[in-house]
Write a structure and sequence with these properties.
Blueprint (H helix, E strand, L loop, with lengths): L1 E2 L2 E2 L3 E3 L7 E4 L10 E4 L2 H9 L6 H17 L7 H13 L7 H13 L5 H40 L5 E5 L15 H9 L4 E6 L6 H13 L3 E4 L4 H6 L5 E4 L3 E3 L4 E4 L2 H10 L4 E4 L5 E2 L5 H4 L8 H4 E6 L2 E6 L12 E4 L6 E4 L2 E3 L3 H7 L2
Parallel strand pairs: 6-7, 6-9, 7-8, 9-12, 10-13, 12-17
Antiparallel strand pairs: 1-2, 3-4, 4-5, 10-11, 11-16, 14-15, 17-18
Helix pairs in contact: 1-2, 2-3, 2-4, 2-5, 3-4, 4-5, 5-6
Bound molecules: 5-S-methyl-1-O-phosphono-5-thio-D-ribulose.
The site of 5-S-methyl-1-O-phosphono-5-thio-D-ribulose has 18 residues, from helix 2 and strand 11.
Length: 365
């Protein structure tokens, strides 16, 4: 997608040095556009943990390149299997909730098993990471194609009047490689000339909605309005929201959806107001081993300072301001789980389906 009219992906291999992976540093958006280099698995680990990159599909692709970078640093083939296993475990410990991380690591580790030579394993890991990146781009494009009719139908029912879509956090192209998940049908509808407007939840404490989703939509020219997190319920009661589309970090086989903290409350409000609540995700976000998302999906807890301080742009630099008593205790859960019963449907690259085990398992085929 575009930033200042130039096309970017969120991650790429440097054109002249294939041992250098480059990313857009999301910590400084929307205020500054910075590109960072990743040359080691440790830098990759930090980039994921400290959220230079974030969002489930992008975390996955970054991890795939991270394994490649880790293999590059192995000096000899002594205890190779053990060294490789440790690379995977190390990267997997960077963030706990987004299953795309494990998906991507398992994918690369699985593929490199086909060779005994370190050099070949490096080549296979590089190819696999590149392929995963391409596949996730195509998956997101297809999510847009498959989700578009849901918006189009509402537009037709409203006789072409503006369709109001509410989204939470950033499930946009910055959370993926291109297109986004929740934003893919939105961008598709916008391109097709369907009149839309997006309500963007600010998404405390890190404000991914206000900082990243608003930035993306503004850059692509999509009409939008940022709202405080607690505003969605009122808008729904007043008939100002036609549908909700969010992303997911992990969806269990029974259809429970882990996504950014606050998603569950929006689903409850949507249910109470009979507003469709859609979740857009690639199949790499489905945890095929988990049948009960509410009880089994691990919920990341992050640093208390993310709640205690607000970060913003002041006097041409990033500034942090404390917004509460220094000594008050804080807890910072980063995700919640929306029960399947509140999800109208899942939008995936393989089609739109009900959020239940029978339908989700059919997506695999
Ligand atoms: O903590 P983050 O910013 O990585 O959380 C991101 C989200 O919750 C997104 O909604 C999710 O990853 C969907 S990705 C398209």
């Amino acid at each position: 997608m575009k930033i200042n009219n130039n096309y970017y992906h969120t991650i790429w291999v440097d054109k002249t040095d294939s041992k250098k992976i480059q990313i857009i540093d999301q910590r400084s958006l929307p205020f500054e556009f910075k590109i960072k280099d990743l040359r080691t698995i440790k830098e990759t680990y930090i980039a994921i943990k400290d959220m230079w990159v974030r969002g489930a599909p992008l975390i996955g692709v970054t991890a795939a390149y991270g394994i490649y970078l880790g293999l590059l640093s192995i000096e000899n083939s002594k205890n190779l299997d053990q060294k490789i296993k440790e690379l995977g475990e190390y990267l997997e410990s960077s963030r706990p909730t987004a299953i795309n991380l494990k998906y991507a690591i398992d994918l690369v580790l699985g593929k490199i098993q086909s060779s005994d030579s370190l050099e070949e394993k490096i080549n296979i890991a590089f190819d696999t990471a590149n392929q995963l990146k391409a596949t996730e781009i195509e998956n997101c494009r297809l999510i847009g194609v498959n989700g578009f009719p849901l918006i189009e139908k509402i537009s037709k029912a409203k006789k072409g009047a503006v369709v109001n879509i509410l989204t939470h956090c950033n499930a946009g192209w910055l959370a993926c490689i291109d297109h986004g998940t929740a934003t893919a049908p939105i961008y598709f509808a916008h391109e097709k000339g369907v009149k839309i407007h997006v309500w963007v939840d600010e998404t405390r404490p890190r404000n991914q909605g206000a900082r990243l989703t608003a930035f993306e939509l503004e850059q692509q020219g999509v009409p939008h309005t940022v709202i405080a997190d607690n505003t969605g319920g009122l808008l729904m009661q007043k008939g100002m929201v036609d549908l909700v589309i969010v992303g997911s970090d992990r969806t269990s086989v029974n259809g429970d959806v882990a996504n950014k903290i606050g998603t569950y409350l929006k689903a409850l409000a949507a249910h109470d107001n009979s507003i469709p609540f859609y979740v857009a995700l690639p199949l790499s976000t489905i945890d095929w081993d988990t049948d009960d998302g509410i009880n089994e999906i691990p919920i990341e807890q992050r640093d208390e300072n993310e709640v205690k301080y607000v970060e913003g742009w002041h006097n041409d630099q990033m500034t942090k301001v404390r917004i509460m008593p220094e000594k008050s205790p804080v807890v910072n859960y980063a995700f919640d789980v929306t029960p399947a019963k509140y999800v109208t449907a899942l939008i995936t690259e393989n089609g739109v389906c009900k959020a239940n085990k029978t339908n989700i398992e059919r997506l695999k085929i």
